[in-house]
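Table S4 entry, Glycosyl hydrolase family 88.
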Amino acid sequence: MVLQITEDNRQTASALFTADGFDELTPRPAFDYRHYELNLKEASLRLALLIEGMTKVADKTGRFVYQLPDGRVIDTCTYHRWEWPQAIGMNGLFDYYDLRSSSDPSDASAAYILGLMKDWYQQRVEEGIPTKNINSMAVMYSVACLLDSDRKRGKGSVLDDEWRERFEGWVDEWAEWIMNELPRTPQGGFQHVTFRLANEGQLWDDTLMMTVIPLTKIAKFQFLLHTQYLMDEVSGLWYHAWRFDNEAGTSGTHSSDALWARGNCWVTLAIPMFIELTELSPSDPVHRMLVSTLRRQVDTLAPLQDPATGLWHTLVDDSTSYVETSGSAGFAGGILMAIRLGLLERAKYLDVATSALNACLAQVTPSGQVGNVSKGTPAGKDREFYKGIPRMGMVYGNSLLIVALVQWMRITQGEVDEFFAGIDAEEQRSKLE
C-alpha cells in the first residue's frame, strides 16, 4: 500500500500521523532499569544487536509510505532510504566506527561498520539522489565526517578516489543550495522546508540537527536565532516550531505549547556536538550562552524523568502522554557527551544519563528493534496531536541509542581500549555480522 497525497487533501495526509488501526511496537521493558548494571561487554553486545536491528527496520505494511503529486515515493521508516531518520542512522554508525578505528585503524569491527555505511550510500546512488530539503540535508553530516577522517588519517585511508570525489561533490552542491536557494524566514532563519511542505516562515528545532550541524562553519547565527524563538524563557525547554506572521519578523507564534521530547533531544545533542565541532573557546560568548542554554534544559528535564520506566514522556511535562524511547536516548546521549566535554558536571548529571540509558536498553527487543519510538512527527497544532503519534520501529530509535552507548563508552575510553584489545579480531567482527 502506498498512500496518495494530493495538494488539496490534507485529511489524507493526517492519516500518516495517527495510530488508529495500527499495531504499535510497545513491548514491555526487558528488565527493570533500576537494577541493571551496564558494563563494557554488555555494551558491546547491545551495540551489535542494535546495529543489526537497525539495518532491518522497514515499514512492511506500507502504511506510512507516501506518494506525492509529482510522483515521488517517500519512505521515512525503512533503513534503505534517504531521509532524515536514515541520516541519523548513519550518524550512529559513524560514531561507533570512529570510536573503534581511532585507536586501531585496522580494527575488524570498524572495517565492517565502514562497509555498512558505504553499502548504504552506494544503494542511494543507484536509486538516485533525492530532492533537496532541510531533512534530506541531514545525510551530509556523516558524509562530511568521513571526508574529515580521510583527511586527518591520510588520503585514501578511509575513502578511495571515487568515493572522495563523490562526497566532495555532494558536500559542495548541498552547501551551495542551503546558502543560496533554501528559503529564509524573516530575520534570516533557515525555513524548515520538507519533502511535503514548504512550512513558510517557520523555524523548527529539528533544523539544528538536520541542517545546522552539517554546516557548522556558518551555524553560529542560526543557533542563536533558533534559541531566541524556540526556547521557553521560563523552563529552558524548547517548543517544536515557530512561525513568523509577517515578512518583517516582528510577530509570530509557536505551532503549539507542546514541549515535545524528541524535538528537545535534538537540542541536547546539537549543543555539545556544535561546541566540539567548532572548537569554541570556553570564553567565547556563544560557547557560554550555549552551555547555559543546555544546563537550563537539562536541569528542568531531570525531575521530569518517569521513575517507573526511566524514560521521559513524549510531552516531557505531561505524564498522561506515553513514555518515548528515542527522545530519552537523545537526552542520555547529549548529557553524556556534555559530561565528556566538561560542559556538565559528572557528579551531578551522570546518574540521570546512565539511568536513562539503561531504561532505553530495556526497550530493545530480542530482534534488535527498539520499542516505544514515536514515528516521524511534523509540527502539531496542539498537544493531543503529539500524544496520538504511532509508535513503531524507526531507524533513529536504534541510532540514538547507539550514539548514547558510544558516548558512555567514550567516558570510559581507557577501559574501552583495553577491553577491545583483549578481543580477537575475528571475534570482534562476528559480534557485528
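Residues 313 and 322 are 5 Å apart (CA to CA).
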